[in-house]
Amino acid sequence: MGISKIEKFTEEQNKVAALAKALAHPARVAILEYLFKTKSCVCGDIVEEIGLAQATISQHLKELKSIGLIKGSIDGTRVCYCIDENNWEQMNSILNKFISTKKTQKNQCC
Amino acid sequence: MGISKIEKFTEEQNKVAALAKALAHPARVAILEYLFKTKSCVCGDIVEEIGLAQATISQHLKELKSIGLIKGSIDGTRVCYCIDENNWEQMNSILNKFISTKKTQKNQCC
DNA sequence: CTTTATAATCGCAATATTACGATTAATAAA
DNA sequence: TTTATTAATCGTAATATTGCGATTATAAAG
After folding, report:
1. Which of A45, A77, B28, B93 is the least buried, fewest Cβ under 10 Å from its Cβ?
2. How far apart are alpha carbons A98 and B83 in whole angstroms?
3. Number of domains in chain B
4. Which of B28, B70, B102 is the best mutation test for A, with the most CBs of A within 10 A?
Protein backbone atom coordinates (compact mmCIF):
# COMPACT_ATOMS: atom_id res chain seq x y z
CA MET A 1 0.00 0.00 0.00
CA GLY A 2 2.86 2.38 -0.13
CA ILE A 3 2.78 4.00 3.26
CA SER A 4 -0.57 4.90 4.75
CA LYS A 5 -0.50 8.64 5.25
CA ILE A 6 -2.42 9.00 8.46
CA GLU A 7 -0.33 12.05 9.38
CA LYS A 8 -2.07 14.00 6.65
CA PHE A 9 -5.42 13.74 8.38
CA THR A 10 -6.98 14.97 11.57
CA GLU A 11 -7.23 12.87 14.70
CA GLU A 12 -10.98 12.72 14.19
CA GLN A 13 -10.76 11.61 10.57
CA ASN A 14 -8.38 8.83 11.51
CA LYS A 15 -10.65 7.77 14.35
CA VAL A 16 -13.73 7.63 12.15
CA ALA A 17 -11.81 5.61 9.58
CA ALA A 18 -10.44 3.20 12.19
CA LEU A 19 -13.90 2.58 13.66
CA ALA A 20 -15.43 2.14 10.22
CA LYS A 21 -12.69 -0.33 9.37
CA ALA A 22 -13.67 -2.45 12.35
CA LEU A 23 -17.17 -2.74 10.87
CA ALA A 24 -15.90 -3.21 7.33
CA HIS A 25 -16.20 -6.97 7.22
CA PRO A 26 -19.49 -8.89 7.33
CA ALA A 27 -18.04 -11.47 9.73
CA ARG A 28 -17.32 -8.74 12.27
CA VAL A 29 -20.75 -7.24 11.74
CA ALA A 30 -22.24 -10.68 12.30
CA ILE A 31 -20.14 -11.25 15.41
CA LEU A 32 -21.26 -7.95 16.90
CA GLU A 33 -24.91 -8.67 16.10
CA TYR A 34 -24.58 -12.07 17.68
CA LEU A 35 -23.03 -10.62 20.82
CA PHE A 36 -25.92 -8.20 21.09
CA LYS A 37 -28.47 -10.91 20.51
CA THR A 38 -27.28 -13.57 22.90
CA LYS A 39 -25.90 -13.88 26.35
CA SER A 40 -23.80 -16.96 25.58
CA CYS A 41 -20.89 -15.13 24.11
CA VAL A 42 -18.38 -17.97 24.31
CA CYS A 43 -15.88 -18.02 21.48
CA GLY A 44 -16.82 -21.53 20.38
CA ASP A 45 -20.46 -20.53 19.99
CA ILE A 46 -19.44 -17.67 17.75
CA VAL A 47 -17.40 -20.03 15.59
CA GLU A 48 -20.45 -22.27 15.17
CA GLU A 49 -22.80 -19.37 14.53
CA ILE A 50 -20.66 -17.67 11.90
CA GLY A 51 -19.37 -20.77 10.17
CA LEU A 52 -15.78 -19.74 9.56
CA ALA A 53 -12.73 -21.55 10.88
CA GLN A 54 -11.80 -21.07 14.52
CA ALA A 55 -8.55 -19.36 13.59
CA THR A 56 -10.38 -16.88 11.39
CA ILE A 57 -12.96 -16.00 14.03
CA SER A 58 -10.20 -15.60 16.60
CA GLN A 59 -8.52 -13.09 14.30
CA HIS A 60 -11.71 -11.07 13.84
CA LEU A 61 -12.31 -11.12 17.59
CA LYS A 62 -8.79 -9.83 18.10
CA GLU A 63 -9.46 -6.89 15.80
CA LEU A 64 -12.72 -6.01 17.49
CA LYS A 65 -11.01 -6.29 20.84
CA SER A 66 -8.03 -4.19 19.85
CA ILE A 67 -10.24 -1.27 18.87
CA GLY A 68 -12.19 -1.76 22.08
CA LEU A 69 -15.63 -2.67 20.77
CA ILE A 70 -15.63 -5.98 22.62
CA LYS A 71 -13.91 -7.43 25.64
CA GLY A 72 -13.22 -10.97 26.69
CA SER A 73 -12.95 -12.67 30.03
CA ILE A 74 -11.34 -16.03 30.60
CA ASP A 75 -13.55 -18.71 32.13
CA GLY A 76 -11.62 -21.92 32.46
CA THR A 77 -10.67 -23.11 29.00
CA ARG A 78 -13.28 -20.87 27.50
CA VAL A 79 -13.30 -17.17 26.74
CA CYS A 80 -16.47 -15.16 27.08
CA TYR A 81 -16.79 -12.20 24.74
CA CYS A 82 -19.07 -9.22 25.20
CA ILE A 83 -19.77 -5.84 23.73
CA ASP A 84 -17.88 -3.16 25.63
CA GLU A 85 -20.89 -0.94 26.26
CA ASN A 86 -18.92 2.18 27.07
CA ASN A 87 -16.71 2.06 24.03
CA TRP A 88 -19.66 1.10 21.87
CA GLU A 89 -21.43 4.26 22.99
CA GLN A 90 -18.34 6.27 22.19
CA MET A 91 -18.09 4.77 18.74
CA ASN A 92 -21.76 5.39 18.26
CA SER A 93 -21.34 9.07 18.96
CA ILE A 94 -18.19 9.48 16.86
CA LEU A 95 -19.65 7.77 13.81
CA ASN A 96 -23.00 9.45 14.30
CA LYS A 97 -21.37 12.81 14.46
CA PHE A 98 -19.83 12.08 11.10
CA ILE A 99 -22.71 10.48 9.26
CA SER A 100 -25.65 12.32 10.80
CA THR A 101 -24.81 15.91 11.63
CA LYS A 102 -23.98 16.75 8.04
CA LYS A 103 -27.35 16.23 6.49
CA THR A 104 -28.92 19.60 7.21
CA GLN A 105 -26.63 21.40 4.80
CA LYS A 106 -27.76 21.70 1.20
CA ASN A 107 -25.13 22.28 -1.43
CA GLN A 108 -25.98 20.08 -4.33
CA CYS A 109 -24.03 21.38 -7.30
CA CYS A 110 -24.33 18.44 -9.67
CA MET B 1 -7.31 -13.41 1.21
CA GLY B 2 -8.60 -16.81 0.45
CA ILE B 3 -12.06 -16.12 -0.88
CA SER B 4 -14.20 -13.54 0.86
CA LYS B 5 -17.22 -15.45 2.09
CA ILE B 6 -19.96 -12.92 1.60
CA GLU B 7 -22.43 -15.72 0.89
CA LYS B 8 -22.25 -16.74 4.54
CA PHE B 9 -23.77 -13.48 5.68
CA THR B 10 -27.08 -11.71 5.33
CA GLU B 11 -27.74 -9.04 2.75
CA GLU B 12 -27.90 -6.50 5.54
CA GLN B 13 -24.59 -7.57 7.10
CA ASN B 14 -22.86 -7.30 3.76
CA LYS B 15 -24.40 -3.90 3.14
CA VAL B 16 -23.30 -2.54 6.51
CA ALA B 17 -19.79 -3.86 5.90
CA ALA B 18 -19.62 -2.39 2.40
CA LEU B 19 -20.72 1.04 3.60
CA ALA B 20 -18.33 0.93 6.53
CA LYS B 21 -15.54 -0.01 4.15
CA ALA B 22 -16.21 3.12 2.12
CA LEU B 23 -15.57 5.15 5.28
CA ALA B 24 -12.61 3.04 6.36
CA HIS B 25 -9.88 5.32 5.04
CA PRO B 26 -9.12 8.79 6.39
CA ALA B 27 -8.68 10.20 2.89
CA ARG B 28 -12.23 9.22 2.02
CA VAL B 29 -13.51 10.61 5.30
CA ALA B 30 -11.68 13.85 4.53
CA ILE B 31 -13.05 13.98 0.98
CA LEU B 32 -16.60 13.54 2.22
CA GLU B 33 -16.13 16.21 4.89
CA TYR B 34 -14.72 18.56 2.30
CA LEU B 35 -17.64 17.94 -0.05
CA PHE B 36 -20.03 18.78 2.76
CA LYS B 37 -18.10 21.89 3.70
CA THR B 38 -17.64 23.54 0.34
CA LYS B 39 -19.58 24.11 -2.81
CA SER B 40 -16.54 24.05 -5.08
CA CYS B 41 -16.35 20.33 -5.38
CA VAL B 42 -14.04 20.20 -8.40
CA CYS B 43 -11.65 17.25 -8.39
CA GLY B 44 -8.55 19.43 -8.57
CA ASP B 45 -9.59 21.29 -5.44
CA ILE B 46 -9.95 18.02 -3.59
CA VAL B 47 -6.45 16.99 -4.67
CA GLU B 48 -5.06 20.26 -3.28
CA GLU B 49 -7.08 20.04 -0.10
CA ILE B 50 -6.16 16.45 0.76
CA GLY B 51 -2.56 16.54 -0.39
CA LEU B 52 -2.28 13.15 -2.01
CA ALA B 53 -1.40 12.52 -5.66
CA GLN B 54 -4.08 13.10 -8.27
CA ALA B 55 -4.13 9.42 -9.23
CA THR B 56 -4.69 8.44 -5.61
CA ILE B 57 -7.55 10.87 -5.06
CA SER B 58 -9.14 9.77 -8.31
CA GLN B 59 -9.11 6.22 -7.03
CA HIS B 60 -10.74 7.17 -3.72
CA LEU B 61 -13.36 9.19 -5.59
CA LYS B 62 -14.07 6.17 -7.75
CA GLU B 63 -14.70 4.04 -4.68
CA LEU B 64 -17.00 6.59 -3.11
CA LYS B 65 -18.82 6.92 -6.42
CA SER B 66 -19.16 3.19 -6.97
CA ILE B 67 -20.94 2.74 -3.64
CA GLY B 68 -23.09 5.75 -4.45
CA LEU B 69 -22.10 8.18 -1.70
CA ILE B 70 -21.00 10.80 -4.21
CA LYS B 71 -21.74 11.63 -7.80
CA GLY B 72 -19.80 13.56 -10.39
CA SER B 73 -20.84 15.68 -13.31
CA ILE B 74 -18.56 16.64 -16.17
CA ASP B 75 -18.06 20.35 -16.73
CA GLY B 76 -15.69 20.86 -19.62
CA THR B 77 -12.35 19.40 -18.66
CA ARG B 78 -13.32 19.44 -15.02
CA VAL B 79 -15.43 17.07 -12.98
CA CYS B 80 -17.61 18.37 -10.19
CA TYR B 81 -18.18 15.99 -7.31
CA CYS B 82 -20.99 16.16 -4.79
CA ILE B 83 -22.53 14.15 -2.02
CA ASP B 84 -25.43 12.09 -3.32
CA GLU B 85 -27.92 13.27 -0.72
CA ASN B 86 -30.39 10.45 -1.24
CA ASN B 87 -27.87 7.66 -0.97
CA TRP B 88 -26.20 9.42 1.93
CA GLU B 89 -29.51 9.38 3.78
CA GLN B 90 -29.91 5.72 3.01
CA MET B 91 -26.42 4.94 4.29
CA ASN B 92 -27.14 7.02 7.33
CA SER B 93 -30.18 4.95 8.17
CA ILE B 94 -28.54 1.59 7.47
CA LEU B 95 -25.48 2.32 9.58
CA ASN B 96 -27.55 3.99 12.26
CA LYS B 97 -29.81 1.00 12.47
CA PHE B 98 -26.76 -1.10 13.15
CA ILE B 99 -24.82 1.09 15.55
CA SER B 100 -27.67 2.80 17.38
CA THR B 101 -30.64 0.56 17.83
CA LYS B 102 -28.70 -2.01 19.80
CA LYS B 103 -27.82 0.03 22.77
CA THR B 104 -30.99 -0.46 24.82
CA GLN B 105 -30.25 -4.10 25.50
CA LYS B 106 -28.19 -4.98 28.53
CA ASN B 107 -26.40 -8.27 28.59
CA GLN B 108 -22.99 -7.64 29.96
CA CYS B 109 -21.60 -11.00 30.94
CA CYS B 110 -17.95 -10.17 31.37
C1' DC C 1 -5.10 21.69 -36.02
C1' DT C 2 -2.28 22.35 -31.99
C1' DT C 3 -1.81 23.34 -27.34
C1' DT C 4 -3.37 23.33 -22.69
C1' DA C 5 -5.90 21.80 -18.70
C1' DT C 6 -8.04 18.28 -16.27
C1' DA C 7 -9.14 13.85 -14.58
C1' DA C 8 -9.30 8.73 -15.53
C1' DT C 9 -6.71 4.75 -16.17
C1' DC C 10 -2.59 1.64 -16.41
C1' DG C 11 1.06 -0.62 -14.32
C1' DC C 12 3.69 -1.41 -10.59
C1' DA C 13 5.53 -1.69 -5.70
C1' DA C 14 4.63 -2.04 -0.93
C1' DT C 15 1.73 -3.50 2.45
C1' DA C 16 -2.67 -5.17 4.61
C1' DT C 17 -6.43 -8.37 4.92
C1' DT C 18 -8.79 -12.70 4.90
C1' DA C 19 -8.77 -17.49 5.51
C1' DC C 20 -7.26 -21.77 7.29
C1' DG C 21 -4.43 -25.88 8.78
C1' DA C 22 -1.25 -26.91 12.23
C1' DT C 23 0.67 -26.01 16.43
C1' DT C 24 0.83 -24.23 21.00
C1' DA C 25 -0.67 -22.83 25.61
C1' DA C 26 -3.69 -23.10 29.32
C1' DT C 27 -7.02 -25.11 32.06
C1' DA C 28 -10.25 -28.72 33.48
C1' DA C 29 -11.34 -33.48 33.96
C1' DA C 30 -10.12 -38.26 34.41
C1' DT D 1 -0.07 -37.32 35.48
C1' DT D 2 -2.44 -37.99 31.37
C1' DT D 3 -5.96 -36.57 28.49
C1' DA D 4 -9.42 -33.80 26.61
C1' DT D 5 -11.20 -28.97 25.58
C1' DT D 6 -10.71 -24.57 24.13
C1' DA D 7 -8.83 -20.53 22.07
C1' DA D 8 -4.57 -17.99 20.64
C1' DT D 9 -0.84 -17.90 17.59
C1' DC D 10 2.20 -19.21 13.64
C1' DG D 11 2.95 -19.81 8.94
C1' DT D 12 1.40 -19.46 4.49
C1' DA D 13 -1.48 -18.67 0.33
C1' DA D 14 -4.58 -15.80 -2.12
C1' DT D 15 -6.30 -11.49 -2.78
C1' DA D 16 -7.26 -6.47 -1.80
C1' DT D 17 -5.78 -1.86 -0.78
C1' DT D 18 -3.03 2.22 -1.00
C1' DG D 19 -0.09 5.20 -3.42
C1' DC D 20 2.09 7.22 -7.27
C1' DG D 21 4.44 8.09 -11.83
C1' DA D 22 3.33 7.80 -16.51
C1' DT D 23 0.10 7.68 -19.94
C1' DT D 24 -4.28 8.43 -22.03
C1' DA D 25 -8.71 10.60 -23.10
C1' DT D 26 -11.53 14.57 -23.36
C1' DA D 27 -12.75 19.11 -24.01
C1' DA D 28 -11.61 24.01 -24.13
C1' DA D 29 -8.76 27.63 -25.96
C1' DG D 30 -5.70 29.61 -29.15
Report:
1. A77
2. 14
3. 1
4. B102
